[in-house]
Please model this.
Amino acid sequence: ASRGLGDVYKRQVYDGETGGEREVDFQNVGDIRQVRPDVLRVLFEKRFVPVVASLGCSDSGEVLNINADTIAAEIAASLPAEKLFLFSNVSGVLRDVNDPSSQYSYLTVSQTEELIAKNEISGGMIPKLVSATQAVKRGVKRAHIINGLQDNALLYEVFTVSGAGTMILDREEEEIYLSRVEAADQQKRGS
Model:
């Protein structure tokens, strides 16, 4: 049986109030007004790893689709988290979308805002970069955009100086990062 495009955006979900199912139209998009990190903190304290759906609801109970990167950034900022990782199908922010080697290793908040203002970022990278930037502005020390399809990308991003994606940070964190890069370079030269 074939499905129309509309079926891709509509799904039956469990309705906790009625015990039945109801249809959700995932084209109904919403914005986040509030994150309640207290529930997540309890789960963390009990050593659970919460999985958060990118859905919200309106005041009337209508289920709304919310950008997953936006939700992740809002949660990270509300905790606040040390780091935020956003996954993509490319290895971070690229100067030239046709050249994977043109990846920015890191960007400061002001650099990301400038790239967006100059329309040098396009497509799905815009909400990722906006989310990462907002999280850093609200207290997350570093946000990382990495390729979720690349083997070990998360490990390389966390445990190497050069990383595997693009790191977003503020000026203070940039100084710390650059001192680590310099120390790694000196160690390589001394070896």
